[in-house]
Design a protein that fits this description.
Blueprint: E1 4-7, E2 11-14, E3 19-25, H1 40-53, E4 57-61, H2 74-91, E5 95-99, H3 103-112, E6 116-119, H4 128-133, E7 139-143, H5 161-179, E8 186-189, H6 198-206, E9 219-220, H7 226-232, H8 240-252, E10 257-260, H9 263-279
Parallel strand pairs: 3-4, 3-10, 4-5, 5-6, 6-7, 7-8, 9-10
Antiparallel strand pairs: 1-2
């Protein structure tokens, strides 16, 4: 298993214990925090807060991928994310991730200072592979999604959800390597809530260890998602306890990056978990 993820400017992330990716959506319509951090100064303040609370990575997204979300133009997405990346980079040498599927956004974000590309479409959009091949130090997160955001929750089905996700990962890893993107740059995300029914999501969580067959870092992102709301009958603002439980279970099953909205609370949970491991 890769324990150190190398990054641009001779930097790296230690993955010996789970780390936190803090979510920063600069969108008007994201399912949980849409519209809260659209202004550059507010987004910068939130990023610095997330870092203080315990985030190692700030994941910046300019296009909502919630079910039924409308497409965002290239110009709009660039206008949302690039100024924020530049503002954060001017204040901090933290690890910045760009959450996008558009090749031009990826390239401009990397040039502005992004270290990781987090792509829900796993570099399947035009020119995405070739752009990432140009930047050999940038890490890439490949996420599994059945369908597209607008329609992904319309009766998704699997014969064996774990096997099919692993087959997808295998194919995307091969595609990356053939494009000149080295394997050790890759992170895998099974995509909670992206083309999965409730039972699929909890099977993925229970069997998260089974994605370790590739010996690559694993990312778990289930913070505040409908898999928690539907199970517990909770609104988005009432899903903290469920999100923390999911984060802990994922960490226990070898998730190395936990993507969350509630950084401080998640950091507390992971600190307690690490203390228990040390005491064993």
């Amino acid at each position: 298993m890769i324990r150190t993820l190398k990054l641009p400017r001779n930097r790296s992330i230690n993955l010996e214990k789970p780390i936190i990716m803090g979510i920063l959506n600069v969108t008007p319509d994201s399912f949980s925090d849409g519209g809260r951090f659209c202004a550059i100064d507010i987004a910068l303040k939130q990023a610095l807060t997330l870092l203080t609370e315990g985030a190692t990575i700030i994941d910046i997204g300019g296009e909502s991928t919630r079910p039924g979300a409308p497409n965002v133009t290239l110009e709009d997405e660039l206008n949302r994310v690039i100024p924020v990346i530049k503002a954060i980079r001017a204040q901090s040498d933290c690890v910045i991730s760009i959450d996008t599927s558009k090749a031009q956004v990826m390239e401009q974000a990397i040039e502005a200072g992004a270290d990781i590309v987090n792509d829900v479409r796993a570099l399947q959009e035009p020119d995405a592979l070739s752009v990432l091949a140009k930047y050999p130090e940038v890490a890439v997160c490949l996420m599994h999604m059945q369908g597209q955001p607008r329609t992904m929750q319309v009766a998704p089905s699997y014969d064996n959800v774990i096997d099919q996700i692993n087959h997808f990962f295998n194919e995307r890893i091969k595609a990356c390597e053939q494009a000149g993107i080295k394997r050790e740059r890759l992170i895998l995300d099974p995509g909670f809530g992206f083309g999965k029914q409730l039972e699929h999501n909890y099977e993925i969580l229970a069997k998260f260890n089974e994605f370790n067959v590739f010996n690559l870092p694993l990312l778990a992102g289930l913070s505040r998602k409908s898999m928690i709301g539907e199970l517990l009958d909770r609104t988005i603002d009432e899903r903290l306890a469920g999100s923390l439980a999911g984060a802990l279970i994922a960490a226990q099953n070898n998730a190395q990056i936990i993507r969350v909205h509630d950084v401080k609370d998640t950091a507390d949970v992971l600190d307690v978990y690490q203390a228990c491991i040390k005491g064993m």
